[in-house]
Amino acid sequence: MNLLIMGLPGAGKGTQGAKIVEKFGLIHISTGDMFRAAIANQTEMGLLAKSYIDKGELVPDEVTNGIVKERLSQKDIAERGFLLDGYPRTIEQAQALDAALSALEIQLDGVINIDVNPESLVERLSGRIIHKETGETFHKIFNPPAAGYDENDYYQREDDKPETVKRRLDVNISQGAPILEHYRKENLVTDIEGNQDIQDVFADIEKALSNLK
């Protein structure tokens, strides 16, 4: 079984992805892992990627796409199947992935989309606060400090502030929408309600994947 998993930051994609990999025995593929492995193994694409990274430049799409194709061509993928996480990030990458899978004669079986209301994600992602003295991390809603704590004793990182979180989500929504539309046309997308208990989310995923097998 060969899958993509999609979802906005904070939707629980990482948690559910780990559960899918464990349950179905798939190879978990993330772009970060692929880059590190390609560079460590000094593959053609890995060396090319390193040349950009060493100069502090962004790795071009054609190199990223090449690294993905390299990884998908390896023997363990053919034997076990994959869960691709964090790629494609743009419609151009989705089209490149289609071409790579076609060239490798690999079929994409489904796209699991963890669907969570962006407003609830702003609340979830912007609630993190850090104690100034100890550096201990809390969450205003899900893991608050002791009752009656003094807000002046805590701070928020810039990345955790609501306006920053909302901007990040807006970028992800605008990039993700055409990718989802692309795969919906192929009848590959299953939307999973992410605003529920972790185990309930996974139960819905299991049900969806059992229909693909």
UniProtKB/TrEMBL annotation:
Record field: catalytic activity: AMP + ATP = 2 ADP
Enzyme Commission designation: 2.7.4.3
Keyword Calcium: no
Any one Gene Ontology BP term: AMP salvage
Compartment annotation: Cytoplasm
Gene3D superfamilies to which the protein is assigned, alphabetical: P-loop containing nucleotide triphosphate hydrolases (3.40.50.300)
Record-listed AMP binding positions: T31, R36, E57, L58, V59, G86, Y87, P88, R89, Q93, R157, R168
Pfam families reported in the protein's UniProt record: ADK
Amino acids binding ATP: G10, A11, G12, K13, G14, T15, R128, T137, F138, Q196
GO CC terms: cytoplasm
Keywords: ATP-binding, Cytoplasm, Kinase, Nucleotide biosynthesis, Nucleotide-binding, Transferase
GO molecular function terms listed in the Swiss-Prot or TrEMBL record: AMP kinase activity; ATP binding
Pathway(s) annotated for this protein in UniProt: Purine metabolism; AMP biosynthesis via salvage pathway; AMP from ADP: step 1/1
Main location: cytoplasm
Region NMP, annotated ranges: 30-59
Assembly, per entry: Monomer.
Entry's family note: Belongs to the adenylate kinase family.
Comment field on protein domains: Consists of three domains, a large central CORE domain and two small peripheral domains, NMPbind and LID, which undergo movements during catalysis. The LID domain closes over the site of phosphoryl transfer upon ATP binding. Assembling and dissambling the active center during each catalytic cycle provides an effective means to prevent ATP hydrolysis.
Function statement: Catalyzes the reversible transfer of the terminal phosphate group between ATP and AMP. Plays an important role in cellular energy homeostasis and in adenine nucleotide metabolism.
Name by which UniProt lists this protein: Adenylate kinase
Annotated organism of origin: Streptococcus ferus
Lineage start: Bacteria, Bacillati, Bacillota, Bacilli, Lactobacillales
Gene: adk
